[in-house]
Specification:
By secondary structure, the chain is α+β, with helices and mostly antiparallel strands. Helices cover 42% and strands 9% of the residues.
Length: 255
């Protein structure tokens, strides 16, 4: 084990969704306002996550809890995917942001703040060594952090597993696009994401393609954002090219 904590400051330079604060010593406490992630995930209609869904619904102007829950889930998934992917390709490690370890602070605007207590880390994996990083990312982020997130959201508002897997894939592709733009000299990123999208549980969630301008992704499900209102439209990676009519039946994972 290494006694030198990872240089998470490199992640913040990519963008706010990639930022991660961490203790640099075993006695360091979290900054003011942080609470354990497990408390944020507490079930029940009066829990922090349920209240956050209602706040998102209010801001979106929607009366459909499932729309607000999906949009919230997508934003939180983007946060976890960005930190995980950024750390994997820039630092050669994947931080454990599970509910029993991570701390969270929810600001009025913008992405949630994340903090980790001190833990001696294993020697990093060379970013070019894609297979170990992909395995670690899948176990730690996809089958760990994001599975916990999905379970927490579904305990508040029922959403299909297909929709949530699509949100995860969309978040992962979004993190890749930011890395392509802000840190273009990290070639393992696109190959790592392609490998993750080719394996269960994300296999079949969409198609990743490379273009001169960066990565492009088209998902096979819809996050429901179009239901916010007639002016909402569809997301850039949506399975739909225009908002579906009221009688149209969407693909698996739509609802």
């Amino acid at each position: 084990m290494s006694e030198v904590p990872p240089d998470y400051g490199r992640l913040a330079a990519v963008g706010p969704y990639f930022a991660l604060d961490a203790a640099t010593g075993p006695a360091q406490a979290p900054p003011p306002g942080f609470r354990p992630l497990r408390e944020f995930y507490a079930p029940g209609p009066d829990g922090p996550l349920a209240r956050r869904v209602r706040e998102v619904a209010r801001r979106l102007g929607t009366a459909e809890p499932r729309v607000a829950a999906s949009v919230l889930h997508l934003g939180l998934a983007a946060r976890f995917c960005s930190v995980g992917l950024g750390a994997a390709v820039l630092l050669g490690e994947v931080p454990d942001l599970g509910p029993e370890r991570a701390w969270v602070r929810v600001p009025e605007q913008g992405p949630i703040d994340l903090w980790l207590p001190y833990r001696p880390t294993a020697e990093p994996t060379a970013p070019a060594d894609r297979a170990p990083l992909a395995d670690r990312f899948r176990r730690t982020v996809v089958e760990g952090q994001l599975a916990d997130l999905a379970a927490a959201v579904r305990s508040v508002v029922p959403l299909s597993e297909g929709l949530l897997r699509g949100n995860t894939a969309s978040a992962l592709a979004g993190a890749l696009r930011v890395l392509d733009a802000q840190a273009p000299h990290v070639p393992p990123a696109r190959a790592l994401v392609a490998e993750l999208l080719a394996r269960p549980p994300l296999a079949g969630t969409g198609t990743l393609t490379g273009t001169p301008a960066g990565a492009a992704f088209r998902r096979t499900s819809c996050c429901l954002y179009y239901r916010v209102g007639p002016r909402a439209g569809v997301c850039g990676d949506c399975c739909f090219t225009r908002p579906p009519g009221p009688r149209r039946t969407g693909p698996a994972g739509l609802s």
